[in-house]
Amino acid sequence: MKRSKVFFYVRHLLELCLDNKLRFFLSVIGLLVGLFVFTTGNILLDSYYNETMKDARQISPGTVALRYEYPERLDEAQIYAKGDAPVTRVIFSEQKSMIYAKRSQNGTLCALSATVAGVSGMEQDIPILSTGGEMLTGACTLLKGRLINGNDVAMRSRVVVIDAFTESLLFPDGNSIGKSITFDVSIPGITTSSTDPNAHQEREVLQCTVVGVISNSYHSDREAMEYQRFSQGADSSVQLESMVYTPLSFVDDAFEPSALKLLIWDGANSPSLKEHLTLYRQQSLKNFPSYDVLDKSAVLAQTITRLAPLKLFLTLMMLLLLFISGINAMNTMFFSIKERIREIGIKKALGATKLDILNQFILEGMMMALIAAVIAVVFSCLTVLFIQGYLNQRLFLLFEVHFTLSNLLLPIFVALLYGFVFSVIPCYYGAMIKVTDSLRFE
Amino acid sequence: MLIELDHIQKTYDGRRYVLNDLSLTAQAGELIIIRGSSGSGKSTLLNLLGLLDVFDGGTYRLQGKEINPRHYNRYAELRSTLIGFIFQSYCLIDSISVQDNILLPFLYSHHPIDGAVLAYLEEILERFHLTPLRHKRVSLLSGGEKQRVAIARAIIKRPPLIIADEPTGNLDEENSQLVVQHLKALTQGGACVVLVTHDKNLLQYGDRTYFLHEGRLTE
Ligand SMILES: Nc1ncnc2c1ncn2[C@@H]1O[C@H](COP(=O)(O)OP(=O)(O)OP(=O)(O)O)[C@@H](O)[C@H]1O
Ligand SMILES: [Mg+2]
């Protein structure tokens, strides 16, 4: 077709499309609703997926960790010897220490309790908390001051490294370096003991000097949001958690160390190390469930498995809805073909073939679907951004919309497919009618 | 010969033959008028001539080419190049403009809409006094105007055969005369026009007039 003709043809299609405003409106609206829910749902689901993955994503790809609860069953020497990469040893304080508490005007309480992690060093991945409260590993970025080093461990220094969120709570002016944090060792959590008269006597206070501040883990970012919710006047108390880092020897000295320990290898050769650890776990630890071998791929896989049923269910629901809206579009198409049988007859008399007729109506169907898809995508984007704003600013939930190209193109592709599939049947019906019969049609 | 119909038979229900042993020849430059009572099969005959419907017996040659009634799907191209249709009910597409209606046949042929076509379009619009209406929606036109648009559409591709089924059926005396005068003028340009009409005042324009009765044509 020559250019002038293409232009004429497209204009002709548009005119016919828009001729019956009600029909146009009905077909577009029908598809639009389905596509809108589909697109919005897809983006939200993907964003949620992405958000949930953020815990696992913090783990550096080369790192393998062994998490164990019963140290007496573990021959540490053997493990260290076999690991061919540098290892960071970690033990945790048995109890969380409350390091911050604040009561708001309406009487609610905000408390921050810290898990004290004694580390042999901080150059490699360090232990962090996941949003579920589990122990993960992740790289740390120093924001100011310095990290815990081997010297601190040897000297049993009373120093501590905190993250930005902890700093913002404890030292709102932002000057934490050189100041001290008081660990309230004997009192677990915030449910202290106004009921227990002896509590105060058992209480021991330890002070550590802040030497460095590192960037937040994803968990800390969430806690920061939670704190915001509290400071905006929440009507319930909040219990926040963070992790602070001290030399390994300090935890040994000052706290009753917990049974939970962590060995973190910055595995230059992580697959074989992981294999070794898994094997060791099977052979020496007799599959004791409290020993975990943990690395990025395992945690990612776990998360994916956990989310799979939800994702499947929601995807099926959205496809069902899309299907229904497609049937609705087909319905509209069918009636519009009947309405236009005379037009088909005229065009055939002018020399149009069945294929010409089919093409025209399919193109029309696809054009309407495309219009619906574009509107749906635009509305969906606005909606999810609104939802993000609402979650962040009103509900103080950490949620970031995750747009992907496929999320935005998929509905357009689906719409074109729909325009095609759901026009073919009615159009075929229209194209098959004999010319003389369709000309009689009024 | 442009049209050669030989012993054509046509039945809708397999029992009654609407056309029975009908023969007709026509050549370029002729205006042939066909009359007959209602239901005698005039429209049926024109549909056969225009390759819109199949026949059940006999032979039909159009421009010397034999038409096979089993292969009607292949005749879209012939319809588009050889035949122009004019109907009593205009058969225009109401939602688009006059000009687009006239150019519509080009969407279904290989012929480009080139300068020559556009020049001819201007000439036709002028001839049928449609120039001021060219961008108007067809649904807003009067009956006479619509039929002029229909004629313009039928001749835009300069087809050798023009089939007109009661084109004046919905028009008043004056417009009827005008339409037939236009058709007559087309035959002077070399086209062959087959016209069905009930209007006795129009018979004077025909080169030949036939009467369709019991499936056959009589002079
Ligand atoms: N598609 C069809 N199916 C069955 N019978 C038909 C069909 N088309 C026409 N007929 C019958 O064939 C006969 C001829 O019809 P046709 O339309 O050719 O008449 P006509 O001469 O054009 O009449 P009028 O002057 O009223 O237009 C009529 O009896 C009609 O009922
Ligand atoms: Mg008739």
The gist of it:
The complex is a heterodimer of chains A (442) and B (219). Chain A is built from 14 helices and 13 strands.
Category from helices, strands and their pairing of chain A: alpha+beta
What is the mean predicted local confidence, pLDDT of chain B?
Answer: 89
**What is the end-to-end distance of chain A?**
32 Å
Q: What's the count of strands of chain B? A: 10
What is the name of the CATH topology of chain B? Answer: Rossmann fold
CATH superfamily of chain B: P-loop containing nucleotide triphosphate hydrolases
Which H/E pattern describes the elements of chain B?
EEEHEEHEHHHEHEEE
Give the biggest beta sheet of chain A: 7 strands, mixed
What quaternary form is this?
Answer: heterodimer
Q: State the order of secondary-structure elements of chain A, H for helix, E for strand.
A: HHEHEEEEEEHEHEHEHEHEHEHHHHH
Largest interface: A-B, 28 and 30 residues
Question: What spatial form of chain A do the alpha-carbon principal axes imply?
Answer: elongated
Bound molecules: adenosine-5'-triphosphate, magnesium ion
Q: How far do the termini of chain B sit from each other?
A: 19 Å
Determine the fraction of residues in helical runs of chain B and give it as a percent range: 25-40%
What shape does the CA trace of chain B take? Answer: globular
Structural class of chain B: alpha/beta
Number of domains of chain B: 1
What gyration radius of chain A follows from the Cα positions, in whole Å? 32 Å
